[in-house]
Write a structure and sequence with these properties.
binds calcium ion; binds ligand C2E; eight-stranded mixed barrel; 41% helix; alpha/beta; 15 helices
Length: 392
């Protein structure tokens, strides 16, 4: 149990009961506040706290206003949201708090049981609903320097067959090695690359290294298929299919072993050019996957219009499917729809065994996620793959 806790709830009875429960669970000190305004005063005067329980519905300053004030302060206290309202409203409030980059451990419906509190607190840090710490984006200068000096490298995350667990392919995920900053993640440079016309150069750099690594691994008996992310912005480039084919041929890679994943709605730009590019990629033998399916970046229209061969159900639904019936229903309908279109299905974001089992039972063809492996360097991927393929 966290040592120093604040409970914010306007209902005296609920507040007292929660203070008793939290004390019984082992907290050293619990402070109570009657609304958002009172809570902010106490935070300023008696904080910082290790954990704050926030009731959403309060007269005076409500829970959402309190969350907004926390966000404005850049507060990183762990939060648990509570409410007597329906679960959907609680979930929406959780998403809002995450959009504010607050550290939400989870939500609790009233009446609150001690076992539910314990369960939330025992979640490992990596699996909490909290959002990532926001890192600054790279500047255009930093990015083009890094591209020119060969500091852009792919890491590879394996995908395994849902039924047999056998590894099938890897997804190339871009990383930048910046001296003094270690490995910089895509969220810090893909938006800059897209905005500043460096995304095509980035895609070719990643693809060239991915094909070279495939050739290098093949000589060591490691033969994964390859998935490469393509931004919607690049699909306006009708030369892409020819350039990709040329690149694949240079490394003696069969196009049928390569799948391009579209990371955003491919229909954002010019529809004619996008369809031209995608159709020609298919004609050359490459495969095409719809990424992040089920989110706002994907539409059902894509399924009908685009020559897709694979569909990846978004992490946000897969990772919650075991605990959240609504997320599970979305995964189920995405998988069902993909199957009716004859597409290979991938569940991405499989973080534990229960999710792996559920996805297999729900009929996903391939699984990807931290449960199997995090993205790895080319050398580590080779070791992982050989180890995984060893007879046991
Ligand atoms: P994405 O294509 O949806 O890739 C999946 C992201 O989820 C990766 O993050 C991966 O490391 C992470 N992930 C994988 N398994 C799990 C899991 O079990 N749990 C959780 N919580 N996360 C998991 P990463 O590498 O930071 O990439 C983020 C996004 O950046 C990618 O999302 C993709 O949209 C974009 N990106 C990465 N490389 C490239 C690239 O070469 N080109 C383009 N255009 N976009 C790229
Ligand atoms: Ca992807
Ligand atoms: Ca995805």
């Amino acid at each position: 149990m966290k040592n120093y806790v604040m409970v914010v709830d306007d209902d005296e009875f609920v507040r007292d009961a929660l203070v008793k429960q939290i004390t019984a669970l082992g907290a050293h000190r619990v402070v109570a506040a009657a609304d958002g305004h009172d809570a902010m005063q106490k935070l300023l005067g008696q904080g910082p706290f290790d954990l704050i329980f926030v009731d959403l519905q309060m007269p005076g300053s409500d829970g959402i206003e309190f969350l907004r004030s926390l966000a404005q302060r850049g507060d990183s206290t762990d939060l648990i949201l509570t409410s007597g309202l329906d679960r959907k409203t609680l979930k929406t409030a959780e998403s809002l708090a995450q959009a504010y980059a607050l550290n939400v451990l989870g939500v609790l419906e009233k009446p609150i049981r001690s076992s539910a509190i314990s369960r939330l607190l025992s979640k490992p840090a990596g699996k909490r609903a909290s959002t990532k710490v926001a890192h600054p984006e790279l500047s255009i200068g930093e990015l083009s320097d890094a591209l020119e000096s060969g500091r852009l490298i792919p890491h590879y995350q394996p995908k395994v067959c849902a039924l047999s667990g056998a590894p099938r392919s890897v997804e190339a995920l871009a990383r930048l090695r910046i001296p003094g900053r270690g490995l910089v993640m895509p969220e810090q440079f893909i938006p800059t690359a897209e905005r500043c016309d460096l995304i095509d150069a980035l895609t070719y750099t990643i693809s060239a290294q991915a094909f070279a690594d495939m050739a290098h691994w093949a000589a060591r008996g490691v033969c994964p298929d390859m998935e490469i992310n393509i931004s919607a912005a690049s699909l306006d480039d009708t030369d892409l299919p020819d350039r990709m084919l040329e690149l694949a041929e240079q490394h003696l890679i069969e196009p049928s072993r390569v799948t391009f994943e579209m990371t955003e709605s491919a229909l954002i730009g010019s529809v004619a050019k996008t369809l031209d590019t995608l159709t020609r990629l298919r004609l050359k033998g490459f495969h095409l996957a719809g990424d992040d399916f089920g989110t706002r970046y994907s539409t059902f229209a894509q399924l009908k219009l685009l020559p897709l061969t694979e569909l990846k159900v978004d992490i946000s639904f897969v990772s919650r499917a075991v605990a959240d019936p609504e997320a599970r229903a979305i995964v189920e309908s995405c998988l069902g729809l993909a199957q009716r279109f004859g597409l290979t299905t991938v569940a991405e974001g499989v973080e534990d065994e229960a999710t792996a089992i559920l996805m297999r039972e729900m009929g996903a063809n391939l699984l990807q996620g931290y449960w199997f492996s995090k993205p790895l360097s080319a050398q580590d991927l080779q070791t992982w793959w050989l180890d995984r393929c060893k007879p046991r």
